[in-house]
């Protein structure tokens, strides 16, 4: 069966015509194609190259979970991203991925994460000191630094200096920006390589690896036990009793930086903006946080009982999923709902579109945290803020705990007011906020 006859195709000339718009923000282009052509279409991006775009939640569930063994991640992650961050959990595939997932999974169990909550809270409160009351500020840089500091403190405790942290953050973000240019402008890749741009950023990642190697070596020499993520990674053992080698350890740490800070800072910013637009939910969150603080000093107990805060965050990630697309490539030819995908087909799922699909959600464009009053499980076949199936984000609990602490501490200190007309986005590797201007007024202490 010829897929081009079954699935509508967007021709190459239309892609090239809109290439600069796509570079700036591809979502309107894709949305119009979905509206015109249906929930699955094929986009020609070269004379012999095409990508299938989908907002079909049933197809996503089939590919990511039910028939996941027939699918691998695309070269965007396994090669393009991997050249900057190595072969860690996010970019690895096959047996290598399974081996790493089994090794690292225990470090992200709730009992292990409980030991990190105090450090996470301190990192958050430290960054909140930068919020100037009564002034209009862009909150994203504060959340961006907060999320990076949280990952660093959870990984290294106090082992990394502020200079090291700042340099690692700069390199992480610079490499991602370069990768965006490579992906959005594939016709310029020859120039990026010939001009030395790619080598420049690869040199930066080698610098980052050198910083991390030094931090790891210092920890090993010190023989100090910090009970942080680095200790857990150093002590983890494969089935044969061996530990990760140095290169693999650095790969995993780079992945934690890349996946662990930007998605969280994006989600926190969007959540903060939505709360500014919906003061009634600010007050519900404030009342819950105040009640829980009076009831117990146990931070984990408060986090687990913060149901209103969890609803708010889950609805925020529905409207603005930081990981707004997922991609897969099939090993063997596959068939679904009358469609045929030849072996080697690239399928890109728009999480952004699935989360706003009018057939799946009541009032999909409206902020309604109450839809998650019974948790997110009822939406498991159409809600993918952390992915789905075996490749679901290993740090989902870490991220949720961090975001709950961050939002409850924020609304406990401030009332948040919007200083923007509408929420703006910048879709890069992740869905980033833009012009998130807010005003913070201190709450009167009881």
Average pLDDT metric: 91
Major beta-sheet overview = 6 strands, mixed
Question: In percent, how helical is the residue content?
Answer: 55-70%
Strand content: 5-15%
CATH superfamily: Cytochrome P450
For this structure, the CATH topology is Cytochrome p450
H/I helix tally: 20
Distance between the termini: 70 Å
Structural description of this entry:
The chain has 446 residues and is an alpha+beta fold. The chain has a single domain (55-442), classed as Cytochrome p450, CATH 1.10.630. It contains 20 helices and 13 strands. It has helices at 3-6, 12-17, 19-24, 27-37, 57-66, 75-85, 94-104, 110-114, 117-128, 140-156, 162-184, 189-194, 197-222, 229-235, 246-277, 279-295, 299-305, 307-319, 351-354, 396-413; strands spanning 9-10, 40-44, 50-54, 71-72, 136-138, 325-330, 334-336, 339-341, 346-350, 414-418, 424-427, 431-434, 437-442. The strands form four sheets. A six-stranded mixed beta sheet has the order 1-2-3-9-6-4, sandwiched between helices. Strand 11 (424-427) and strand 12 (431-434) form a beta hairpin. Helix 15 (246-277) packs across helix 18.
What's the quick description here?
With 446 residues, the chain is α+β, with helices and mostly antiparallel strands. It has 20 helices and 13 strands. The protein has one domain (55-442): Cytochrome p450 (Orthogonal Bundle), CATH 1.10.630.10.
